[in-house]
Amino acid sequence: MSRLLTLDRVGFAYDRRLVVSDLSFTLDEGDYLAVIGENGSGKTTLLLGLLGLKEPSEGAIGRSDALRSHRIGYLPQQIPEQRDFPATVREIVLSGRLNRHGLISFYTGEDRKSATAAMRRLALEDMEYRSFRELSGGQRQRVLLARALVAAEGLLLLDEPVAGLDPIVSHDFYRLIRELNQSGVTVIMVSHDIHCVTRDSTHVLHLGYGHYFYGTTEAYMNSELVASYLPGRKNRPDGADQ
Fold first, then answer.
1. What is the residue extent of each domain of the chain?
2. Cβ atoms of residues 153 and 110 within 8 Å
3. What is the pLDDT of residues 24-80, one digit of tens each?
4. CA neighbor of 23 nearest in space, from 211, 218, 215
5. pTM listed for this prediction
6. Cα dihedral sign for 114, 118, 121, 124?
């Protein structure tokens, strides 16, 4: 596996306040990194930094030659304005390729094939000409995931992708992410749903106030930090739950 990202003592400021500091971790191809932590600990700010939309205030982010910003797919947190976007499902998915063309705003045959493949992969073929605004919340998130997928060749960044979705739809969405990762897609997901993301992830980055944890999911689930983050959970020497 080749290395995609290396963060070396990175810090990010938000509203002139340092929200992430002295952060170091690596990401390899095929990893599934769950990013969890308290509100205001800098999780979304970190994603913006990985996208190149926010410069670190300290430290350095190393990216592989194969991983440029236009090869990263990004699914941000849901906002109300997304629901009323006047476009078809196919148009939304296809727009994920726009960042590859700069000022040239036409799509190639390869772009169209990629969009079709992503819709097939996420079972969106039957609704490709439906209006985005007519869809349910779960359907909209699947469309936006397909859009992120056609933008990505190396990495998917997902920021609270199941927020506001009912448990059944959320479970299905996590299944889709798990299957994408198992097929070779590298994933970084921000989530408050620690039980679900640690079930599927290979690594965990837990951001706290003035501290952080990075390591394998197994190491995290046996750490003192997870015991304090999940009320009622205590560590045993063998790592099993009580």
1. 1-67+156-242, 85-153
2. no
3. 999 999 999 999 988 888 999 999 999 989 999 999 999 988 776 567 899 998 766
4. 211
5. 0.86
6. negative
3-class SS letters over the chain: CCEEEEEEEEEEEECCEEEEEEEEEEEECCCEEEEEECCCCCHHHHHHHHCCCCCCCEEEEEECCCCCHHHEEEECCCCHHHHHCCCEHHHHHHHHHHHHCCCCCCCCHHHHHHHHHHHHHCCCHHHCCCEHHHCCHHHHHHHHHHHHHHHCCCEEEEECCCCCCCHHHHHHHHHHHHHHHHCCCCEEEECCCHHHHHHHCCEEEEECCCCEEEEEHHHHHCCHHHHHHCCCCCCCCCCCCC
Instruction: Give 1-67+156-242's CATH code, choosing from 3.40.50.300, 3.60.20.10, 3.40.50.2000, 3.40.50.150.
Output: 3.40.50.300
CA 1 from centre of chain? 20
Q: How far apart are CA 117 and CA 226, in angstroms?
A: 39
